[in-house]
Amino acid sequence: MSKRVKILLISILTALCVACVFATSPSKSSSTEDQLIVNDDTITYCSPLKDRKELLLYRFAYTVSYNPDNKIPNWVAWKETKQYANGKLKRTSSNAFREDEQVRKPRATLEDYKHSGWSRGHMYPAGDAKWSKKAMYESFLLTNICPQDQKLNAGDWEEIESLCRQWAKRYGEIYIVCGPILDENFSTIGKNKVAVPKAFFKVVLCMNPEPKAIGFICENAPNNFEIQDYVLAVDEVERITGIDFFPFLEDSIENKVEAQSNLKLWLRKGNKIK
Question: N or C: more exposed end of the chain, with fewer CB within 10 A?
C-alpha cells in the first residue's frame, strides 16, 4: 500500500462514521423497459444495506442503491463488456444532466449544483454507455451523480474509468461497483442538501480467464497521483465503506480475490496507464 493511500485511509477512517438509519425495503423500477435483461438484475452486486437507507433502482444498463437521505447513491453497479466498451455513440444535446423524477422529493436538482463549486460526477460513466442511447440517457440522471471535484472528475477518476474499459475489452466482461464515501460531518450543497463525499471507491471483479479483483479509493480533491497510489484490496474497501461486495461468489473464491491488491495482475501490453 502506498504512503499516499495510507494517509488517505487514516483521514477517512478518522472522520468516517456512517449514521445508522432505518433501511427501506428494496423496490424495483416500475418501468417495463427497465426490466429488459440488459442489466442483469439477477446479479447481487452488494448485500442489502442495514445501516443506511437504500432504494434499489434498476436501470437499463446499471443498478443504483439510492439514498434518499443524502440524495446521492450508496453505490452504483454494472457489468461492462467488450461490446459495450467498444460503443461509438457520441454525447448529444439530448444527453444532459436531469432530475430523476422516479424518486420522491426532496431530491437532487440542477439548481443544487449551480455555483456550488462541485462538478456533477458520474458513477456509471457516460463513457461506458456509448453502446446504447437509453443507457447514455440514463447515465445523466442525478441519482447516478455525486458532487465531485472537477480535476478529479476529468483526471484520475476518468483515467480509472478508461482503464476499466480497457479491461472489459481484454477480458470480455467485468463487474464494477462504485460510489461515495461520506464522513460524519459531511457538507451539503443546494436547498435539497445533496451530500458531498469525502472520497470515492471503485471495486472491479473479473472472472476470466481466472477470478481476480481490485479496489480503488480516491479522495474527493484535485489530486494527480499514480493510479497505483489509489489501489486497495476489496476487503479493505469493504471495511471502509461498510458494504459487502460480490456476495454471489463462492466463499473460497471471494476470500481469495478480495484480498488482492496487485495492479500488475491486471496490466498487460496495450494497457495505457500513467
Answer: C
Query: With 60 as the cut, is the pLDDT of residue 50 above it?
Result: yes
Say how far residue 142 (Cα) sits from the centre of its chain: 13
Report the relative pairing of strands 194-195 and 199-206 from DSSP bridges: unpaired
For the chain, what is the mean pLDDT? 88
Q: So which residues are the catalytic ones?
A: 122
Q: Which CATH architecture has domain 3-265?
A: 3-Layer(aba) Sandwich (3.40)
Report the SS3 class of residue 188: strand
**Rounded to the nearest 10 degrees, how much is the dihedral formed by the CA atoms of 221, 222, 224, 228?**
20
Confidence (pTM): 0.86
Residue 83: CA count within 13 A, CB half-sphere: 4
DSSP 52: S
Please spell the DSSP secondary structure of 197-263, one letter per residue. PSEEEEEEEE-SSS-EEEEEEEESS-----GGGGEE-HHHHHHHH---B-TTS-HHHHHHHTT---G
